[in-house]
C-alpha cells in the first residue's frame, strides 16, 4: 500500500474513534434477521400474556450461547406465542443502559458492566440469573512492535469500551506490571484506546493501534491481519476459568414474569448442552447467526481458533465475579461494592435439576 494511502486510512480510523464512542452510548441495534426456526408454532400460547421478551446480546463468540439458541429457534420454542425480540450490543455499559430503560428484559453480558450497573443502581435494577461462558479473551499485538510483555509499555492498545470487562481486565494487568494509566482518559505508561470491536481490525491494520485486549472473534480477526497472541487471559486465572459472559434480568421482570425467565433459561441450558456435545456443528450455527446479524460470516482462520478458546457453561463462576470487582476497584473505576444479592440462581437451578444436570452456587452473593 502506498504511504499516502496508509496515512489516509490511519487518519480515517483515528477520526472515527470519537464518533464510535458516542455511538456506544446508544442502546444497541435491533435485530430482525429472518429465521424459519424462530416462527411461532401453531397453537402455542403466550407466557404470562406477554407480547414479547426483549433479549440482548453481543455479536461476539463469547455470547455463543445466545447466538446458538437464537439460530436454533430455542428461545422462540420455549416462549411459545410470546415473541423473542432482540437487540445487539458492542459492549456492556450500553446494554446496562438499555436494561435500565426497559429496552431489554434479559441480556447476555460481561461481569464488569453487570457489577457497575448493579452498584450504581444500589442493587435495585438487575440480577445475574445464570452463566454462559468462560475464556475467549486475548491480548494480541503487532509482533514487529511488541515482542514481549514488557514491550507493551508505551504502546497503543485497544479495548472495546471504557469500563467493559476487557477494559477492566487490561487496566488490572497494567497495574500488576507496575505501570500507571489514568482509567478515565486511558493515558499513561500505556495508551488504552477504547475502540468499537467492529473497527478494531481496521485500526490495527492502519497502525492506529499496536494491539488489543479483546474477546473473540475480534482477537482472531487481528491474528488474521498478522497480529500475534501475546497473552491468553485464561492463563491468569486459577483452573484457567473466569466468567466472561453472564445472563442478567431486570429485577421487575424477574418478579413479574418468572415463567418467561424460566423459558429463556431453558433455552440457554439446552443450547449449552448441544454446544458442548456438538462443538463443530455449534460453531457453524453460531457463525450463521453472526452472519445474519452483521451480514458477514467469519472465515475459518478466524472462527476455528476463536471457538476453541471459549468454554460454554451454565455455571456463572460466581467466585470469579468478586475478583473482577476487585480489579475494577483497583483501577479506580468502582468504589468497593456490596455485591450481596446480585445473583438469583433459583430458576436456573430448577431448570438444571429438571434436566438432570448439576446445580450451581452463588458464592454467597445470592438474593435473600
Name the features.
368 residues; seven-stranded mixed β-sheet; five-stranded mixed β-sheet; 14 helices; globular; disordered N terminus
Describe this structure in words.
It is a single chain. By secondary structure, the protein is of the alpha/beta class. Helices cover 42% and strands 18% of the residues. The protein is built from 14 helices and 12 strands. Helix 1 packs antiparallel against helix 7 (200-206), helix 4 packs across helix 5 and helix 10 packs across helix 14. It is globular and about 60 Å long. The protein starts with a helix and ends in a 14-residue tail after the last helix.
Going across the biggest sheet, name each strand in turn: 1-3-2-4-11-5-12
Which regions have little confidence, pLDDT < 50, spanning 5+ residues? 1-26
Q: Rough shape?
A: globular
Biggest sheet architecture: 7 strands, mixed
Q: What is the number of helical segments per DSSP (H or I, 4+ residues)?
A: 14
**Rg on CA atoms, Å:** 20 Å
**DSSP strand (E) fraction?**
15-25%
- The CA-CA distance between the termini, in Å, is 61 Å
Number of strands: 12
As a percent range, the share of helical residues equals: 40-55%
On the 0 to 100 scale, the average pLDDT is 90
Order of helices and strands: HEEHHEHEHEEEHEHEHEEHHHHEHH
Helix and strand content put the structural class at alpha/beta
